[in-house]
Amino acid sequence: MAPSGLAILIGAGPATGAGIARILAHPSHGNLAVALLARNPSNLSSLAHSLRSSAPNSIIETFPTDTDPANLSDAFSHIRAHPSFQGLKLRVGVFNVKHASKKPFLEETHEDFTKSLHDYVGGAFAFSQEWMKLLFEHHGQKALADGGEKKGTLIFTGTMGALRTNPQFAAYGAGRSSVRMLAQSLAKEYSAQGVHVAHTIANGAIEDADGEDQRTGKKMSAEAVGKTYLWLSEQGPELWTHELDLRPAQEKF
Fold it and tell me: pTM of the predicted model, to two decimals?
């Protein structure tokens, strides 16, 4: 079965990213061709090999990059030209980049603090802009009110740090909350043009597993996150979820 469209995921790691990619790509689930973006070429290649084995007949291609705007622009140029994606329209984008920073405030440096924001928040901005440009190349910009279609769904994986933070997490809280506001701004600007933007709050541990911890609700399964993201991407303009809390049953909140 030919893929139904294209998904681009940045932050393709062995846990959450793997589960999301597998569900989006698997012919019995999303049936989307998936472009995986991450920093480490070797790890990215190993992940793609594993995903192709667990999702037979799926189309999964890799594009090593960090969140630097110039490098992201190059990666999107390669995605445009890749033979596996010819004739496919962009449908889904996932910003799943990790962001972790803990340091006593008086030991924090201006350089480290601003670099954290540059890499994470700036990366979310650059990825979103490149994704949006490609989406409009594929679908045009006709508004829903003028007969336009839903064009695609852009999802940001966030954490509780986007809502509240703790001592020694100044950079972390600033970064996570900033990306949440970026998602909200994009949703308000582009919803009427058929672009669905969602921000999730992942509250709890996520594993690419289906074992006792998942059965008892101690940890989330990465594939369950992937199924949730696929559900978000399939929502029609009559109802769009913007923010969604994700947690395993035993997680305190």
Answer: 0.97
